[in-house]
Amino acid sequence: MGAEEITAGAIVRELVRGIPAGRVASYGTIGRAAAALGRPIGGARTVAWILASLKALDDTPWHRVVGARGVILLPDRRGALQVSRLRLEGVRFSRGIVLPDLLLDEAELRAPSRPSSLGRRRPGQNVKLLLAQKRIRFNAHGLRQQAGNRR
Known about the structure:
Elements: H1 8-17, E1 25-26, H2 27-36, H3 44-52, E2 65-66, H4 76-88, E3 93-94, E4 97-98, H5 106-109, H6 123-133, E5 136-138, E6 144-146
Helix pairs in contact: 1-2, 1-6, 2-3
């Protein structure tokens, strides 16, 4: 693994950073979006593991990732912290579940770049740019290839 290797953690963090305030995405949606961008990372459990391993100083908005159908899966105080952060961002709940219209799907998550008021790109575009800058391509089987290396 060289310095040009892009980790699954970097892909997940970039996708999660692209979830706008007031919206959420499921762990599975993040995994499917990464796979659709040519970087399969394993799925919902891998996404959950990556987010659980974030350090306190990391600015990734982990609280915007929820279970399938908008369910808060974190137990105890972590789940309460997630709910309070989401409510501060304007996320609405019904019987403890995020309202369905606030859930992003894969297409919204990897939509082409659209500048926001802060000048940030959409998450899918950031991941594509990150891969392009490192000249990394993936073949149909998800195997990493350097650009120009077509084995």
